[in-house]
Write a structure and sequence with these properties.
globular, single chain, mainly alpha
Length: 121
């Protein structure tokens, strides 16, 4: 396994609240901020909410996730998360792509992209 796969594997073990906390703490904009877990979670949620539309555009429109998921080899969550991290890195402005990609996959890319019901996740 590569270092990225190791990192993503660890991130995939976290729940959404833990990922929001990790997001807040890894955001360069918050480098000098000391958060309580509750503050970190809420800051991470706000950061994710702010990024959601540019991420939706990048993943759903430009990368065309709904079509890709039918034809690509994303048979496991780790492979899908790594692919998403590669796709979104330019949108994030220094925020670790692995953390955001993991959140996106856990929340559901089909939901994010509003894929049709006959598309499978």
């Amino acid at each position: 396994m590569t270092a990225l796969e190791d990192e993503l594997g660890e991130l995939l073990l976290l729940d959404e609240d833990q990922l929001y906390i990790a997001l807040a703490r890894s955001d360069p904009a918050n480098a000098d901020v000391m958060f309580s877990p509750v503050e970190a979670r809420e800051t991470g949620r706000r950061t994710f909410d702010r990024l959601e539309e540019p991420l939706r555009h990048r993943i759903c429109d430009e990368w065309n996730y709904c079509a890709k998921k039918k034809s690509s080899n994303f048979g496991d969550t780790l492979t899908l998360t790594a692919a998403v991290a590669d796709v979104i890195v330019t949108v994030l402005g220094g925020i670790p792509a692995g953390t955001v990609a993991t959140l996106l996959v856990k929340k559901g890319l089909s939901k994010l992209c509003r894929c049709r019901a006959d598309d499978h996740d």
